[in-house]
Amino acid sequence: MTPMTKTWEQLAPQRGALAVLRPADAEAWSERLRFDRERAARHQSSELAAITAAVRERARSAGAAAVVLSGSTARGGRTSVSDLDYHVIGIASLQVADLPEDIDLYADELDRFWAKLREGDDFAHWSVWYGCVLFDSGVMREAARYVAEHDAWPDPERKLHQAQGALDFAEQMAASGDYDAALEQVRGVLSLTARWLLLSHDAFPLARDELPEQLEQLGYVDLAHSLRRSIRERPSIENLREGVARAREISGAKQSLSRRAAA
Amino acid sequence: MSSKPKVEVAREHLSKAQEEAAGDDLRDAVQWSFASLEAAIDALAEKHAIEIKAKHWRRAEAATELHEKGLLPKDLSELHQLLNVERKGMFYEGEDPDLGDRSMEDVLTEIETAVEIAEAEAK
What we know:
Chain A is of the alpha+beta class. Chain A has helices at residues 17-20, 26-42, 46-61, 71-75, 110-119, 122-130, 139-150, 156-174, 179-200, 211-218, 221-232, 237-262, and strands at residues 66-70, 84-89, 103-108, 132-136. Chains A and B meet through helix 8 and helix 9 of A and helix 1, helix 2, helix 3 and helix 4 of B.
């Protein structure tokens, strides 16, 4: 059962839930920033917090308008395969390659960030919904207002396209005998497929390790099982191939249905 | 989970990257190049007791260390980071790879050197 959205902590991953919290309201947004500071402290080890502090300070010095801690770290659900994810807004790039962690950092100048939000880029939307805002000159609040007022929603078709584009390579990697690379690719494809399915059902995809439970709630039990194993275990190559086949079957079948409906 | 020896994997991935590059598929060429470079670094790191723990950033550090020890003629950490960023951009944002000042041929040449060294060390 999804909790009712009454506080930022309870923000339900359902379309429309963000608007319930009235992010345009100054007091409500202050509460969001307070909640974000608290969870950034709670969800990071001292080593990760030091990396985050370095990213934040470098971004500030480079003139960024906002920095958001994203993904499993923001959600408090890191696993052994988690990266450290950041979204830096207001600058085109930021050098972090020297920091001792696998870091996924997306840097978007302001125009690009707004374009992504309007076009339904799910990472930009994720920053607005569940990202840990580390500092904000106002763009994140405006973005949250925009999403709430326009019922803006990530475009599921973008994720479907990404998943389908990644399937062939994952399949070839699974056949290559390079287990670690295959596991990473298959995990990625299963995650993309999961995000597409969830968005299609007006459910907001949470962090990667939370996706299997969200999929189960929609009835995609087998896909959930494959994804969970790819995150928490080291399944056999045969299991990985089955996962890719499952993702291909679901995405292909759904695409055919969409095309028929469109016709 | 068993896997082929990394040195074999590195050569096979490199062959795929060369095939894709010859067919003008830059996207797949970049993906296979990155996989080949990672496997070559893994093979050399294992031989010289450098811990990787299946982390990309540790492979970049290992590439630097292998160069500093005189095992690789060039520090490939920057190439590793470039390919890692570009393959993620393709995967998650659908972007076409941008190799900057490098051509795909340059990339393949640099990786082939690492693969050849890993093969020689494995004998």
